[in-house]
């Protein structure tokens, strides 16, 4: 057993003992600290390292002073680069901005495993703390993007636009390209005008060295516009991005790249390749990231329908919506489900049921209206 595994086990053991001492179940503690209960279970068993944020919140809820925080801070850091000393109190989102791809699975747990409504206040607090300390501008941009995307998922589009504006206002160079790309992808779920989104995507890839997320944003928008020749070229560029490239510029994760490739394939009518790519994306996406996995499953359902397996695609989409906890149901999920309806005949029984489930959120779905 490595020293890192031993330290994770020590933190997990203390967390379990402290929780049991006050008579709380895993689900009860998870609800109080805003984390998924399955993730907490893995932390207690030493299968996940936890985070400084989790330790701090559990200290508060369990009345353990700073025992959990101190125990967590004693563990060796995965995110320290050669020649660097890791700061154990560094926020998870900040580690995301500086860590390599292999480290992101740890850093991202802090928000990918947290429902958006619970997550939002913490993101805003992190930004305020960063600004008070005079922190790095690129980190503030990344946090503004996360807030904008979270607000978009919650349906608060006007507030999200203000955060996009704030991200643009403080970004330069590669940071501005990142904002443009992520806003273009977000705009697809919001059903914003496609030509406006294409301008954002074009601006993102115009950077001296376009990143994976920039190329993905442009390919996704071109696919929605139906510009077949251009989107084929864009898809080839996406598929040509290797793991080494992602590791060198960790602004996106491998599962997100395969998600984009699968989505583009589905829009081009390549259902089977889309299914293969999305299955690979699902393999790379951690189990505790409930919202992300729901979107991947719904994209898989769309690809199944495109491949001619309409009943199977509709059945998968229905299962996702029925089983998904209410706190994870957001605009991103509804948009992914609506895309299944766009390729399924309206007369299909599953389509009728899926439309009914989506209507419970008060959205107009399956209209097939143009975005141009």
From TrEMBL:
InterPro entries: Cro/C1-type_HTH, Lambda_DNA-bd_dom_sf. Residues 15-59 form the HTH cro/C1-type domain. It holds the Pfam family HTH_31. It comes from the Bacteria. This is Helix-turn-helix protein. PROSITE patterns: HTH_CROC1. GO terms for molecular function: DNA binding. Gene3D superfamilies: lambda repressor-like DNA-binding domains. The lineage of its organism: Bacteria, Bacillati, Actinomycetota, Actinomycetes, Propionibacteriales.
